[in-house]
């Protein structure tokens, strides 16, 4: 499936789709979207890129093995769950910064939780697809 | 419309069960996927379905001002969809491995594996 | 007392690591275990004779009422003395009998285990611990009977003994639990107070039935008697120990123990008298036709057990005194005769009564032991057996007047049989001229012939001085069975009366029969023609039937075909759900509350149905996969229409990824092959459609029910206020139910790891470098 058109297109599509996925992630608390969908869209961006340019070159862009994203994501979620303990609150209590940030809105522990989910989803999907693709 | 969805889920279940009863492993897997889709629709129908009012609070309000779709079934289904992806991907890979091992899509061939493969 | 039970158990387990030592140098240690225990119980004799009971209490599972309560009374003491005393003899005997046997250590491990279990049975003051030990005797006797495990017959009879006694144990447990529940206590010494309450309870007949089955199976009563002759495949020390004094007496012990709790009713008496009476005459007749020494002893044992059951059934004070004496009498002479048989077998390698002759010339002390035992068994005056027989006749004579003659006749006939059997086993092999073939036979090691000789001499001594044993042991036993004071004074000489006349007549008839009837192979064969109506045959048929049924069941239900399992599970679910639906009556639909329909929804459903049809019928794998993704996209559109944007997005992306995955993997696989024939396809289609219809009807029924939306309302109202989010679905996922989502991601991670390792795994040997 190495066609010039697709390769050229994905070169621009990858950053755009990643940006879109990040947008879905950040606004998930207010509008449809969130970590799951964001992560899936990001994975699709990478999968598309790997279709056009081969899995090896996608791996090069990623830099790390996608498997390593899973523990990072799980750790992020866990931290956001346990941080309230430091403040003497029960775990999973929502903590928020006072001032809203433009575009994103309020930033709180729930967002970090969602980021963790986002990373895990990307890690899982890419691990599954890339190990299969590379094995053949 | 509920009746139509009920018909859809009944058909999804029926087709899923029929495929699960086949000898081919791929059909078995497709059947499981159809069953999980059917289950999703079932949960969706049982929660009250509403048109054109997603469970998102308007940008100016702090609470809902009018009728909104039940968020709980949606949260459940969202989880179910993602989990079933995990299941499906694992099953697909398992199927690939089994095929590499016994060189067949026939479930009955799994009953008598060759000695060296055990 | 606990230590006496534990000693055997601990030593038994110690034999696993230290068995090698025991096999050679240290084997002399083993017999001293029962000797010490015997001395311990002998030391308790005066205590018990004073009328006090020794009680030891240890909590074990207090919440279930299961405790290690041990209680030593007259009944327990008699059995404990028999178990340890005869045990000591057997241990010495077996040490020589099995010298050099490859599994010497294993044998003693089983034997110790058995001895402990037996002590546990007779000492337990809690019916549940009693049951535990009871089962332990069944299990350890299974190993002992099947000790020669390279012989098929031995394995079979061990299995038969286990299945009969195990089945009996099952009934017994049910009976014991009923007793415990009705009385509200599982402690035997407390149960005595509940006699009237138990007897008048509506479940009383059931309890008697269950407990009697338990006791009858263990004590080889008709129709469960056949395992005992079968169990003669065991090494002779085992037969001598288990089948004379201990294991088979456990059933008698149980009946005796429960006589003050459940007895003294017509039902109890008639049951025991009928079963015991039939067993004793049936087995006595059978013993006359055996040519195998152990076969004779086995049937005469069954007959003796029948007598004991019969006497417990009569239940008068006389009868109970007779029971307590006869237990001891029988244990002494039967253990002796078994050990003598073992010596004969050991030295001549045959047990065939028609071949054995004149052995007194080569083994005189053995002959003396056998002769004394045979005399005691025959009830010749001045032996302990004579007293026992007198007491039996006294019991039958003093029962209800109209029954006296029948019961006495039965007892006399049985005893004639026992006299003959005893002579045949104890005297026949030693009398006459020594044939050529046995010239080589010689007296075995003294540790083999001294134990039987001691037991036989005791049988005479007790007969000459009945006061000693009567006042100190059996009197208290009878008290414990009767649940009150019995006036027992054993005497050798009662003067000339009916009893003496009967005894004399029995002896004369028995001796006459001994000379008149010679068992031969032909007679045995003629008898065995009736085996087809015996309970043993029925039991075998039952076993075969069960095996056939289970193999049929396995072939039908557990045939190893995945789809067949699926089919059965689904069909069963359909039946259950369908039945429940049918019970609920007709389905109603609330048309007013339905959301309106629009044409594009129709369009989507039409596409979806088309895709479903294609998946089910297509022969191409790719078409099926693509159709599945079409279904996913259709559902995605549904979610869009019905206010679920998050679902729509997730479904869309997941569907895309699944399709990619399928295509990555599946394009290499061969095309679908149609394995199924038309009939199967139609059958599956009907079942599948049925399931779809049932699910749809359930949903319709649910839809008619009013929906409670408390939880949804809570989330909707508090999403912004508590969690500062406006997309309620997302708030539920990351905040309200965040922990669930957390673990969901863990599940996903596990799936990814599974895929990763599955791909990297090298399964085929050819793949391994």
From TrEMBL, chain A:
<keyword id="KW-0472">Membrane</keyword>
<dbReference type="InterPro" id="IPR050622">
    <property type="entry name" value="CPA3_antiporter_subunitB"/>
</dbReference>
<dbReference type="GO" id="GO:0005886">
    <property type="term" value="C:plasma membrane"/>
</dbReference>
<keyword id="KW-1133">Transmembrane helix</keyword>
<keyword id="KW-1003">Cell membrane</keyword>
<dbReference type="InterPro" id="IPR007182">
    <property type="entry name" value="MnhB"/>
</dbReference>
<feature type="transmembrane region" description="Helical">
    <location>
        <begin position="67"/>
        <end position="89"/>
    </location>
</feature>
<comment type="similarity">
    <text>Belongs to the CPA3 antiporters (TC 2.A.63) subunit B family.</text>
</comment>
<feature type="transmembrane region" description="Helical">
    <location>
        <begin position="101"/>
        <end position="134"/>
    </location>
</feature>
<feature type="transmembrane region" description="Helical">
    <location>
        <begin position="12"/>
        <end position="30"/>
    </location>
</feature>
<feature type="transmembrane region" description="Helical">
    <location>
        <begin position="36"/>
        <end position="55"/>
    </location>
</feature>
<feature type="domain" description="Na+/H+ antiporter MnhB subunit-related protein">
    <location>
        <begin position="5"/>
        <end position="127"/>
    </location>
</feature>
<keyword id="KW-0812">Transmembrane</keyword>
<dbReference type="Pfam" id="PF04039">
    <property type="entry name" value="MnhB"/>
</dbReference>
<protein>
    <submittedName>
        <fullName>Na(+)/H(+) antiporter subunit B</fullName>
    </submittedName>
</protein>
TrEMBL record, chain B:
<dbReference type="InterPro" id="IPR050601">
    <property type="entry name" value="CPA3_antiporter_subunitC"/>
</dbReference>
<comment type="similarity">
    <text>Belongs to the CPA3 antiporters (TC 2.A.63) subunit C family.</text>
</comment>
<dbReference type="InterPro" id="IPR039428">
    <property type="entry name" value="NUOK/Mnh_C1-like"/>
</dbReference>
<dbReference type="GO" id="GO:0005886">
    <property type="term" value="C:plasma membrane"/>
</dbReference>
<keyword id="KW-1133">Transmembrane helix</keyword>
<dbReference type="Pfam" id="PF00420">
    <property type="entry name" value="Oxidored_q2"/>
</dbReference>
<keyword id="KW-1003">Cell membrane</keyword>
<protein>
    <submittedName>
        <fullName>Na+/H+ antiporter subunit C</fullName>
    </submittedName>
</protein>
<keyword id="KW-0472">Membrane</keyword>
<feature type="transmembrane region" description="Helical">
    <location>
        <begin position="6"/>
        <end position="21"/>
    </location>
</feature>
<feature type="transmembrane region" description="Helical">
    <location>
        <begin position="28"/>
        <end position="50"/>
    </location>
</feature>
<feature type="transmembrane region" description="Helical">
    <location>
        <begin position="75"/>
        <end position="95"/>
    </location>
</feature>
<keyword id="KW-0812">Transmembrane</keyword>
Automatic annotation (TrEMBL), chain C:
<keyword id="KW-0812">Transmembrane</keyword>
<dbReference type="Pfam" id="PF00361">
    <property type="entry name" value="Proton_antipo_M"/>
</dbReference>
<dbReference type="InterPro" id="IPR046806">
    <property type="entry name" value="MrpA_C/MbhE"/>
</dbReference>
<dbReference type="Pfam" id="PF20501">
    <property type="entry name" value="MbhE"/>
</dbReference>
<feature type="transmembrane region" description="Helical">
    <location>
        <begin position="74"/>
        <end position="95"/>
    </location>
</feature>
<feature type="domain" description="MrpA C-terminal/MbhE">
    <location>
        <begin position="682"/>
        <end position="760"/>
    </location>
</feature>
<protein>
    <submittedName>
        <fullName>Na(+)/H(+) antiporter subunit A</fullName>
    </submittedName>
</protein>
<dbReference type="InterPro" id="IPR001516">
    <property type="entry name" value="Proton_antipo_N"/>
</dbReference>
<feature type="transmembrane region" description="Helical">
    <location>
        <begin position="565"/>
        <end position="585"/>
    </location>
</feature>
<feature type="transmembrane region" description="Helical">
    <location>
        <begin position="203"/>
        <end position="228"/>
    </location>
</feature>
<feature type="transmembrane region" description="Helical">
    <location>
        <begin position="404"/>
        <end position="427"/>
    </location>
</feature>
<dbReference type="GO" id="GO:0005886">
    <property type="term" value="C:plasma membrane"/>
</dbReference>
<dbReference type="Pfam" id="PF13244">
    <property type="entry name" value="MbhD"/>
</dbReference>
<feature type="transmembrane region" description="Helical">
    <location>
        <begin position="493"/>
        <end position="516"/>
    </location>
</feature>
<keyword id="KW-0406">Ion transport</keyword>
